[in-house]
# Entry
Amino acid sequence: MPRAFRRAGVTALAAALLAGAAQPGVATADSGAGQDRPELRAALQEIVDSGFTGVQLRVHDQRGDWAGSAGVRELGETAKPPTNGRFRIGSNTKTFVATVVLQLVAAGEVGLDNPAADYLPEYGLDRRITVRMLLQHTSGLFNYTGEQYPDGTVVPGIPWSGKEWVDNRFHTYRPEELARFALSRPPRFAPGTDWSYSNTNYTLAALLIEKVTRSSSYGDEIARRILRPLGLSGTEVPGTRTGISGPHAHGYYRYQDAGQWTTVDVTRQNPSWIHAGGEMISTTRDLRKFFSALQGGELLPAPLLAEMRKPHPKSPGYGLGLFVQDGSSPSPFPQPSCGVTLLTHNGGVQGYGALMYSTPDGKRTLTASVTYVDDAALSSKEPSRKAQQRLVNLVFCDGRSAG
# Structure
């Protein structure tokens, strides 16, 4: 996976772990229906044994709803993560944002292929950039969290890693500030000619939502159009609020200073730096209900859901706010071994990772959260990919391994 894509904050379970930091707790389950899923409990324990501090998993399939957790809620403690605790969902936020924009398209308030500048004239956007290109990551706009180009050139963005981020993790960014910072940099390519993941696209999409709806916050529109209708009481768009309300596991970050490694609890942080690119907080239950409702046609009319699921040919299976794993498109995430089509958009921010998978009919889902000790190197890519592959195959391929 190209590092520029990993830097975007969407790598599933992208964690750098502090070896031996957690005292692995035995996986526990809260099935709600009395069913036991020993294969899922074993998978959770394997994830913790590989170095993650904690994991929560929820599976919904023909056998019903199952939830379990393993590891510890907090380093140095023995309590396990709650089976339906709250966590930072990272770039899964983008799927919520894209859904609201498409609802505005369905209502005739936004044109999917209209210039985004029609709705955001104050930013001087290239008129070739359409609303679709924002949701699809084909605008070419500079990613305000930084870019790495094919020749190896790195152009830094706002601080989001290392000691600099740790020391400034309570700083407040205004979305207009993030947008203008990105627009002051040269675009990566001409609009519509290529694909590159950029958080800037979704900050602009959120600003568009606010402009069209005359709302003071895109989060208010997500709450009005998705959270309240679906009863997602454990989900919020925190804005500048630093804490996680309700039961939750802790996330950690480590950095090197003067040759010494320091590990910091970063559960509390100001998520305004990532804004609509990844600030939301949710639970495995709420993510399941949201993604199942979306794929089941409850939130969008069929033609727009079809547009959402249409991957751009130059992308790694990216449609409008989600990834499509259909065997014909490349994917940044491990493909299911049995060839089943899946919809997904995984995410991660410092110390937290989130998984969100569904079959096209919304009837079989996997939602999960992991907590870990993160660092700037994102150095546990391989263990995280193995964990993800194991879970996907267990849930969607009846446990069959690749090959």
In short: The radius of gyration is 20 Å. Residues 231 and 318 are 28 Å apart (CA to CA). The chain has one domain: 3-396.
